[in-house]
Amino acid sequence: xxxxxxxxxxxxxxxxxxxxxxxxxxxxxxxxxxxxxxxxxxxxxxxxxxxxxxxxxxxxxxxxxxxxxxxxxxxxxxxxxxxxxxxxxxxxxxxxxxxx
Length: 100
Fold this sequence. Notes:
Blueprint (H helix, E strand, L loop, with lengths): L1 H8 L5 E3 L6 H8 L6 E4 L2 H12 L5 H15 L3 E3 L3 H15 L1
Parallel strand pairs: 1-2, 2-3
Helix pairs in contact: 2-4
Protein name: Delta-aminolevulinic acid dehydratase
Subunit structure: Homooctamer.
Keywords: Heme biosynthesis, Lyase, Porphyrin biosynthesis
């Protein structure tokens, strides 16, 4: 919180929290303390954990990714940076076509 306040005082246009998944509480606290846009960055290790977990059959990739993205949004992120961005856009597009 101190670092975010200093960044804001120095004129930051946006605050970025990374890694994303372990710091949802920080995003939530920042959301309550600032009007700046908040970005959350899903780092490579978080991506790899989901990717390899799904390849091993331990989890459903799409379901897990969408749950993580929902968690980021619910925590207060305005912007989500992820290696899954393209795939999420594709899944959402396919979902819109099915819902018509």
